[in-house]
Amino acid sequence: xxxxxxxxxxxxxxxxxxxxxxxxxxxxxxxxxxxxxxxxxxxxxxxxxxxxxxxxxxxxxxxxxxxxxxxxxxxxxxxxxxxxxxxxxxxxxxxxxxxxxxxxxxxxxxxxxxxxxxxxxxxxxxxxxxxxxxxxxxxxxxxxxxxxxxxxxxxxxxxxxxxxxxxxxxxxxxxxxxxxxxxxxxxxxxxxxxxxxxxxxxxxxxxxxxxxxxxxxxxxxxxxxxxxxxxxx
Length: 233
Known about the structure:
single chain, 4-stranded antiparallel β-sheet, 5-stranded parallel β-sheet, alpha/beta, 42% helix
C-alpha cells in the first residue's frame, strides 16, 4: 500500500535542511508548509487539514517538545515526527512522553525520514477507510478506530496515533500476551527500527492516562519476561 499525498508542516531553523527536506517531501508527492521557528510552526500545525507535522527539537521561540505538548493540550492528534541531534535515548523517551508519534535522530538519510512519514500516513489512511461504526468494545473500554477515540467507563481518554494502535492491538485480543517486538510492529510499523524498551514508555503513558479517569485502572497487565496483555474479563 503506497502512502497517500498529504499536507505536511515542516519546522526547522536550519534553512539549508528545511529546503532540502521540503524538496524531498514535495518530490514524494506531498504539500509542504515550511516554518523556521516553533511559534509560527505551531500556528501552522494547528491549521485544519494538516495531516502530519515534522519538527526539529531545537527551535527558537518554542522548542519541538513544547510544540508537541501544546498540540496535544489543544486536543489535536495530528501525527508528529520529532527530529533531534541530541542524546537519542533521552530525547526519544521525553518526546514520546509529550505525545510524539515517531522520532528520527540526526544525522539521518532522507530515505529513512520518508519511510517513517509514509508509515504514519499509511496507518492514518487505513484507519480512515474503516467503517465509522467499527467500534471495539471490551468491558468498560470503547474504541472508535476511524476517529481515534477512546473511552473508559464513559470518560474520554486522549491518545496519540501510536498509542491508539498499541491499545487496539491489546484490546482486540484480551488475555493474549504481546511481546515488545510485536507491539513495535503493530504500533509503529515493521519497517521502523527502535529499541523495544520504548514500548514500556508507551504503556506507562497509557496507564497514566487511564488512571486519570479511573484511579483503579489495571487492565493493561505486565507479563514479566514476555510483554503485555489486556486483562481478560
